[in-house]
Amino acid sequence: MKKKILSIILVACMVAGMAVGCGSKSEGSDRNTTAKSESGEDDYVVQIAQGPALCSAPVFIAIINGYMEDCGVKYEYVNSENQWDLMAGGKNDINYGLLPTFVQRIANGYKMKIVGGAHFGCINMVATDASGIQSIKDLKGKNVGIPGGMGSDPAILLQRMLTAYNINITDVNLQVFDNADLATALQEGQIEAFVSWDPYATIVSEYEGNHLIFNQSDDEMTKDEYCCVFGFSDTLVEDHPEVAKNYVKALSMACDFISENPVEAAKLCYENGYVADEDYEFNGKLLESYRYKFNYEDAKASFVDVTKDLNDLGIITLNKSADELADETFVNAGQVK
Question: Torsions phi, psi of 184, nearest 5?
Fold first, then answer.
């Protein structure tokens, strides 16, 4: 039990990094802005800033397995969790993370391009057996924990699902906690259920007296909606299109490897220091459930659906249609269907 508690604290810390957006590059590293070498080859060095979230595995596997080199991509990588600010400041070329965060940022004027989706479903909901909650339909009148606030990706997904089941958000007693405190709040009876990122939610669901009530990766309403996407800087896409295309190819290869070898991928991420959790067998099962596949068109469709829902919920305010925003945001840099 003590080992389990330590494990969940560790995972909570990892997930917290994922929540704020993964990545940042080290101060003082040189940014290569030259377009061409004397041979005519684009020598641009892609800046990769990424934190240690498990579902960020494609970014790590592309490096570990040498796909970046195979595709001719020069890069600098630093483990950090400040990718959004760094990209805004011209010091990061890739954002990778949850779709609702991308929608909110872009709707509010953040400049970047989305080049494709990576995988499905990494947000789950947990309830105690004693609560009698078996699905989202049973949450009316219940105390439900959300991590960080109403704008967090899990909270947004919960709001979307409640609306889909015609449950008024005000009919659920939503309580905000730090993500790491949700399991304790559930155990102590402050809440009867909570929504959170994986692997935290799945780990807590396996404790005696708890169970999953919603799994984003297999729920009928969400199983075909991309969860996490890749965003490239305007500099990378517009000024270095061949580099962007090659980077997409490397990420696509990484997604395919994870899909075919999920446990091996989790093991490689741990052994190479990109993920701190040593239980790669468990993490591999999670990666398998996310169904990794780099895709452009389906990710764009998912973006439109999420944008419409967030606009209807009043989380964002658009002066254009969701389709128009998607057309402005998505670039098929690698010609990947």
Answer: -65, -40
160: left (phi over 0), alpha (psi -120 to 50) or beta: alpha
List the beta bridge partners of residue 215: 124
Burial letters 198-230, b for 16+ CB under 10 A, else e: bbbbbbbbebeebbebbbbbebeebeebbbbbb
Please say whether the beta carbons of 146 and 194 come within 8 A. Answer: yes
**Contact predicate 216/121, CB 8 Å:** yes
Distance CA 18, CA 38 (A): 40
Q: Coil, strand or helix: which one is 53?
A: coil
Q: Note down pLDDT in tens along the chain; length 337 residues.
A: 334 444 444 444 444 444 433 322 333 333 444 445 444 567 999 999 988 888 899 999 999 999 999 999 999 998 888 899 999 999 999 999 999 999 999 999 999 999 999 999 889 999 999 999 999 999 999 999 999 999 899 999 999 999 999 999 999 999 999 999 999 999 999 999 999 998 889 999 999 999 999 999 889 889 999 999 999 999 999 999 999 999 999 999 999 999 999 999 999 999 999 998 899 999 999 999 999 999 999 999 999 999 999 999 999 999 999 999 999 999 999 876 5
**Cβ of 41: how many Cβ atoms within 10 Å?**
12
Strand partners, 45: 74
Burial 262-285 (b: 16+ CB within 10 A, else e): beebbbbbbeeebbebebbebbbe
